[in-house]
């Protein structure tokens, strides 16, 4: 997705990184990818791994649980699958959250 399209979607609703979500928050993935220019190879590898796990644009997502120490790791439902992620990894996944979350 182009930066301008992502910016429009962010303005259209409550879009924030998955790492900022709380248990019970639900939404739809709007973008997967690193927001920084640092560590481009690592960012590409992380993006590829997340896409392979089903973190794709349009997938429904819900934060199910967070770890007791620092809220890490988090457990999420992506469509019909459950996955555990570190918040650092979840920071590159932008989600449009439902109203009230």
Work out the radius of gyration: 13 Å
Helix proportion? 25-40%
**Helix and strand pattern:** HEEHEEEHE
Mean pLDDT: 83
What is the number of helices? 3
Q: Overall 3D geometry?
A: globular
Strand content: 25-35%
Report on the biggest sheet.
Answer: 6 strands, antiparallel
Strand order of the largest sheet: 1-6-2-3-4-5
Structural class: alpha+beta
Q: Compute the separation of the termini in Å.
A: 24 Å
List low-confidence stretches. Answer: none
Q: Based on DSSP secondary structure assignment, what is the total number of beta strands? A: 6
Q: What does this entry look like structurally?
A:
The protein is α+β, with helices and mostly antiparallel strands. 27% of the residues lie in helices and 33% in strands. The chain has three helices and six strands. A six-stranded antiparallel β-sheet has the order 1-6-2-3-4-5. Strand 4 and strand 5 form a beta hairpin. The longest helix is centred in the middle third of the chain and has 13 residues. The radius of gyration is 13 Å and the shape is globular. The model has no long low-confidence stretch (mean pLDDT 83). It comes from Caulobacter sp. 73W. Keywords: Iron.
Features:
single chain, 101 residues, alpha+beta, six-stranded antiparallel beta sheet
Quick recap:
27% of the residues lie in helices and 33% in strands. With 101 residues, it is an alpha+beta fold.
């Amino acid at each position: 997705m182009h930066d301008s399209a992502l910016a429009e979607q962010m303005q259209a609703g409550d879009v924030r990184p998955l790492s900022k979500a709380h248990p019970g928050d639900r939404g739809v993935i709007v973008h997967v990818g690193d927001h920084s220019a640092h560590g481009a190879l690592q960012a590409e590898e992380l993006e590829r791994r997340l896409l392979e796990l089903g973190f794709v644009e349009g997938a429904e997502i819900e934060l199910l649980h967070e770890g007791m120490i620092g809220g890490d790791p988090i457990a999420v439902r992506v469509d019909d699958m459950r996955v555990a992620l570190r918040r650092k990894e979840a920071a590159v996944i932008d989600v449009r959250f439902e109203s009230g979350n």
